[in-house]
Amino acid sequence: MLRWILKTLWLQKPSLLASAAGVAGAFVLVVILHAVFVGESRQVVAYVRHTAADVWVMQRGVGNMHMANSFVWDSKVKRIAELPGVRAATPILYSGIVVRTPGRRWLAFAVGLQRGATRGGPWAMAAGRTTPGPGEIVVPRVFADMAGVALGGRVSVTGRILEVVGLSEGSFSMGNSVVFMAASDLAELMSAQGTVSYIIVDAQPGQDGAGLAARIEQAVDKVSALPAERFIRNDYQLAMQMGTEIIAFMTLIGAGLAAVIIAFTAYSQVARRRRELAIAKALGVRNRAIYAAVGLQTLVITGLGLALALLAAWGLFPLLSALVPQITLVVTAEAMWRAAAVALVVASISAWIPARYVARVDPLTAFKG
Amino acid sequence: MDTPLLQVNKLSKTFGSGHTEVRAVDDVSLDVRRGELILMMGPSGSGKTTLVSMLGTLLRPSGGRIVLDGTVVTRLGEAALPTLRARKIGFVFQAFNLMEALTVEENVLFPAQLAPGGIAQAKPRADELLARLGLDGRRRALPPTLSGGEKQRVAIARALINAPPLILADEPTGNLDSQSGQEVVMILHDAAREAGCAVVIVTHDPRVEEVADRILWLEDGRLRDRRDEGHAWTRCPVCGMRVDEWTAQHVAEHAGERAVFCSQRCRERFVENPVAYAA
């Protein structure tokens, strides 16, 4: 039976390939959507992850950074820096802004850096300086390329003209691009003089982040202090919550599309072999063996489609990243497992339709010339 | 006297009901013994295929009883029938019905997967059948590359692979030329005589009558005495097979005499050396 099914599929190579390509198309959609989602979600925490602080301190009640507002009196920076176990405390300002160039606007999050700050700035540079002074800005290289801005060029942030002095790498995404400005400029834009948004705390060697965070909360009024891993997790979970429903819906659409293609393909393969199925039944093959054969056939088509999809995705991702740099794509092992699991479910559901057809095939058909 | 392999008792099949009711097979009884070759003839629509379908357990009778090799098959549930068919019945169809994607050898071995020993145990028998039916050199060929005669020989080998006691052949010569048809008939004849199978052949082909032990005539769903009017029987001068002079396709003249042959092959042999065969 196995040999019969596989050889029959192989005999109809163009049809098999067309079916697998159709299935692959649907799965490519699923894999790419997931890659976009994961890529963008990871970009949400790119800044806090690369900053590599031990503890993040913020306004009490605030637990994350992405799209959050936090105000802490700047006097608390000194207080925290003097606590035992703290090696350094670096304040930053943080706010959502719109960066304008002629013909282009882009929503970004601005990080305001103190003069001469060695912490909290961009983690990778394409060109220029990492620390902007007053009237200066560091923008993502991808944004600069899209906007046609080079080093020394000008951008506008809430009516203030700033000179581009640095182009950062890895800081651009559709939902969470990060630019770097002087804290004084950002404070003026936010009307937040005398305050900071977050304090990046570096611990003394051998200090535990969670313990230090607890001690900071005890010693300093009206602040929340979180160890870095929890702070990152909070932001990541928020990003996931924001996109999970959309991605689940998209996955459902992709899987549904794949199911329709597979079911149609399997059905047409079976319908085309109606006579051979009747012969097999007449010769004594049981319905359940034919169901298994149809299931196997569906699995082969799905598996081939999935393999083609992964191959296509592997080839497409670098191309997509080059063509659409504003999208961050990340393929994870989880995405592959998810696609395989979806494929298995889709194949099982799709096999049901041709199996019903098989059950109705009358072995008497074999007698009809 | 041994028990017949196949016992059919008052078998009937009705299609439709009320005004549209048709009795395709009506109160048919017959016994077929091992080693016996039975010919079932009759006009189109007489119920031959319906009867053979019921004998092959592919169609449930409306009434009556079929006993095959001691098993009352009309009492078996649907679940038991595929196994019975796989082990007890070999089918030969007019349209050959080979699996297009499988080679000659794989087609022959196809029913073996349904038998207890499986394909591995059936392999030597397949080799023997392929050799005996002249298909040894074609074992790797796919059905579309075979001639009609070869296809039917493959189908017969497939029918014989599980050594079933009953062979049911529906118009096995219907799509074959004269020579191939004759070969197929002789192979089925051998299956009855040498392998001891009971062979039931449904056909319109009068040439097959020569090898049949019994000829049954089915008309309007009922088995009747065979009608043999309408034939002018003579003998093929080469092989001695009985040929209907009125419908014979292969004819030759020799010394002012008209001779008719059962097949093109016999005619060619005669033409090569008529003196050897002229009476």
Provide a descriptive summary of the structure in words.
The complex is a heterodimer of chains A (369) and B (279). Chain A is α+β, with helices and mostly antiparallel strands and 369 residues long. Chain A folds into 2 domains: 2-44 and 244-367, no CATH class; 46-239, no CATH class. Helix content of chain A is 54%, strand content 20%. Chain A contains 11 helices and 12 strands. In chain A, the strands form 2 sheets. Chain A has a 6-stranded mixed barrel. In chain A, β7 (154-157) and β8 (160-168) form a beta hairpin. With 279 residues, chain B is of the alpha/beta class. Chain B folds into 2 domains: 6-225, P-loop containing nucleotide triphosphate hydrolases (Rossmann fold), CATH 3.40.50; 233-277, no CATH class. Chain B is built from 8 helices and 14 strands. Chain B has helices at residues 48-55, 81-88, 104-109, 118-132, 148-160, 178-193, 264-272, 274-277; strands at 6-15, 22-32, 37-41, 63-68, 71-72, 89-92, 166-170, 198-202, 214-219, 222-224, 233-235, 242-244, 250-254, 257-261. In chain B, β4 and β5 form a beta hairpin. The longest helix of chain B is centred in the middle third of the chain and has 16 residues, at 178-193. Chain B is globular, with a radius of gyration of 20 Å. The model of chain B has no long low-confidence stretch (mean pLDDT 86). Classes of the chains: A alpha+beta (369), B alpha/beta (279). The interface between A and B is medium-sized, with 23 and 31 residues.
Write the layout of secondary structure elements.
The complex is a heterodimer of chains A (369) and B (279).
Chain A: H1 2-11, H2 13-44, H3 46-51, E1 55-59, E2 72-73, H4 75-81, E3 86-101, E4 104-113, E5 125-128, E6 136-140, H5 141-147, E7 154-157, E8 160-168, E9 178-182, H6 183-190, E10 195-196, E11 198-203, H7 209-219, E12 223-227, H8 228-272, H9 274-283, H10 287-323, H11 333-360
Parallel strand pairs in A: 4-9, 6-8
Antiparallel strand pairs in A: 1-11, 1-12, 2-10, 3-4, 3-7, 3-11, 5-8, 6-9, 7-8
Helix pairs in contact in A: 1-10, 2-8, 2-10, 2-11, 8-10, 8-11, 10-11
Chain B: E1 6-15, E2 22-32, E3 37-41, H1 48-55, E4 63-68, E5 71-72, H2 81-88, E6 89-92, H3 104-109, H4 118-132, H5 148-160, E7 166-170, H6 178-193, E8 198-202, E9 214-219, E10 222-224, E11 233-235, E12 242-244, E13 250-254, E14 257-261, H7 264-272, H8 274-277
Parallel strand pairs in B: 3-8, 3-9, 6-7, 7-8
Antiparallel strand pairs in B: 1-2, 1-4, 4-5, 9-10, 11-12, 13-14
